[in-house]
Amino acid sequence: LKLEMPTVNLDREVTVLATVPGVVQSLKSCAVTWQKLISRVLEEQLKKVPQDNGPLAEIDLWREKNATLSALTEQIKLPEVQKVLEILQAAESKFTGDLQIVLSDLKKHHMEAQDNAKFLSILERHLKNLSTGTGVDVISNTIPSLLDALRLVWILSRCYNRDERMVPFLERISWEISARVRRVVDLQTLFKQDIATAKKKITEAKRTLEQWKKSYFTTCIQVEESGSKRYWKFDVKRLFEKTDYMVLICQDLYDIFQVTEELYNLFIPELTTVTENPKAVDELRREVNIIISPMEDLSFDPFSMETARDWGFVMEEFREDVTVGIVKQIFVQNLKNPPLYKNHPPVAGAISWSRSLSHRIKHTITRLQEQEELLASERGKEVKQIYLQVVKKMEEYEDQKYRQWRERTEHMLPLLLKDTVLTVSSATEEPVTTKKSVCFTLNFSPEILEIIHETKYMEQLGLPVPEMARYMALQEDKYLGYTSKLKAVLDRYHKLMEMMNEAETKLLDHYVQELWRILKAGCKRLTWKSVGIGEFIVQCTQTIRKLELLVHQIHHISEDINSKLRFIESTNLFKFPPSKNGDRHPGAKEFFDYVKCEQAKDVEQLVRKYSAIPQLIIEVERRVANTNSGKSPKLASYYAYWENRIYQVLTQLIVKNLQAFNATVVANVPVLQVEAVLSVPEITLQPTASEIEKMIVQFIQDCVEITK
C-alpha cells in the first residue's frame, strides 16, 4: 500500500513549480496513481466482513481496517505528498477536486475505523470471558459487565452509536452465547454423564441465556435514564428469538433428567428392598434407558429452530413413554395405600386417585393417536398395549373398592344409627359421694361422618349410593349441629361438676340427681334415629343453666363467709402498749390491762363478723330449699361443713396468737418493766416472778375463753 512518489525535483517554491507544465503533468500522473490506489483500498475495506459469526471477529475486522487506513493516512501526511497536493492546487488542476473527494473519504473511513477499534477494544476482555470463562462467572459478572461496557460505547462513540452498527454486534453476542450453550450442552456427551452433573450443566446454560436477555433490558432502561437522546429500541425478535427457543430446549432437557432421576429415586430403592429378585430392578433400569436412548443419537441439532418439529416428536414420544411407565408404576406400588387428595375420604379418594391416573394416560394415548407415525412404530404399539392392560386393572380396582364400600355401608349404617347419643361411665343409682362420680360421653361414631363424606364424593364420581347413606349425607349439617351442641352441653356439665366442692355437691344433691335423670335419657332411649334430639339438647341446656346460676349464687355467699372467716383468723389478739418516753416500758399490771382492753375491742368485732354468718347460710337455705328456718334437714351436711370450717378458723386464731405471744416472750426484747427494791441485805421485785407467772397463765386462759 505504499504511495509512489514523483520523480521530478520539488526543491523550488510551490508557486514556481505550479507554472511549469512538465512538473504539473508529472505530478498529476502521480496523483492519479494515488487516487486509484486509495479508491481501491477503500473499496476493498468496505467489502470486508468478519471472518466468523462471533463479536471478536468484528473487533478484529475494525482493527485490520484501522491498520490499513492508518498506513495510507500517515503517507498522505508526509511533507512530500502534501507539497504535491499544494502544487496541483496552485495549478488549479480540475483533477484536484476528484482527489480531494477520495482523500476526504479516506479521512472519514479512517476516523470511523480508528474510533470503532478504540471503543470496541473495551469489550474484548468481556467477550473473551464470554467465550472461555466459567459458567458462574459468565452469569454473575461477564454478561452484565459486557452490556454495561456496550452502553458506554453507545453513549461515547461517534460512529458506533447507530442502530445499523449496534444491532448486528448484539446479534453476534447472541450467537456467541448460543455457541457457548451448545458446547456446554452437548447431547452426545451429556447423556453419558451422571444425572447431577448433567442437570448442573443444563441449569448453567439456561441461566446464561436468561441472564443475557435480562441484562439487555436492564441496559435499555439505563440508556434511557442516562439522558441520551438515542434509546435502545432494537428489534427484540432478531436478538432473542433463537436464544429464547434455546431456553425452552434447555428446560425440556432438564425435565428429561429430572424425570429420569425421579424414576430411579422413587422406584429402584423400593424394588431393591421389597424383592429378592434383582431382575425387577434391572428391568426398570432397562425401561428407563430405552426411554432416554433416542436423545443420545439425534440426527439434528435440537437447538435449531428449523428442527423444532423434529424435537417436538422426540419430546412427545418421551412424555408418552414416561407417562404410561410412571402411571403404571405408581398404580401398582400404591394400590394398598393410595395417596389421597386433601379432604378426600379413603374409598372415594382411592377411586379418584385411580381415575386421575387413568385420565393422564388416556390423554397421552389420545395425543398419540393424533400422531399416526408415532402410533405405528414398534414402541408406539408396545405403549398402547401397556395402556390397555393398566386401564383394565384400574377399572377392576375401582369396581372392587366401590362394591366393598357399598356392602359395608348397607350393613354398618343401620347399626351405628341405633347407638344412644350418650354413654355414661358409672351408675347414677346410688346417692352422690364425690363430684366426679358420673361422667357422660358423646357416643357419635366417626364412621358415620366418614360414610357421609364417602357418600358425597361417591355421588360426585357418578356412582350410585344406598338410600339411607344419601339421606344421612343430606342431613349432615343437622347431625354436625347435634354433635357440636351436645359436646358443648357435656363440657358445661363437667365444668359445673368440677366447680363444686364436696359440701356443695351434697347440698345440691337433689338438683344434680335431676340433671342426671335428664342426661340418662341420652344414654337409654335416645338414639341417632330419634326425632327428639333437639328437644333433649334444649332441656339439658336449661337444667344446666339453672344449676349453674344456683352454684354461682352459693359461691358468692361462700366467698362472703370465707372473707369473714379470714378476718377472724388473721386478728391479732395481743396488741402491746407502746413504750413511753422512748426507753420506759409499762409495768406488769399496766401491760396486761392494756392488752386485755384492746382484746375486748377486737372480740367485739369478731363477734359481729361471726354473727353475720348464720344469715348468709340462711340465704343459701332460701335459695336451695325455699325456706329460711336455719334448721333445714336438707342443709344438715352444709351446716356441718361450715361448723367444722369455723372450728378450724377459731383453732388457728388461738394457735397463731399464742405462737406469736410465745415468740415475743422468749425474744431478747423487753415488753414490760419490773421495779427492783433494795431491802438490805436483799433485793425484792415488784411484782414478784411468781405473780408475773400467774398473770401470764391467766392471760392465756382468757385468750382461749374468747372462742366461747
Automatic annotation (TrEMBL):
GO terms for molecular function: dynein intermediate chain binding; dynein light intermediate chain binding. This is DYH10 protein. PANTHER family: DYNEIN AXONEMAL HEAVY CHAIN 10 (PTHR22878:SF63), DYNEIN HEAVY CHAIN 6, AXONEMAL-LIKE-RELATED (PTHR22878). It holds the Pfam family DHC_N1. Residues 24-322, 326-536 form the Dynein heavy chain tail domain. The lineage of its organism: Eukaryota, Metazoa, Chordata, Craniata, Vertebrata. GO terms for biological process: microtubule-based movement. One of its GO terms (cellular component) is dynein complex.
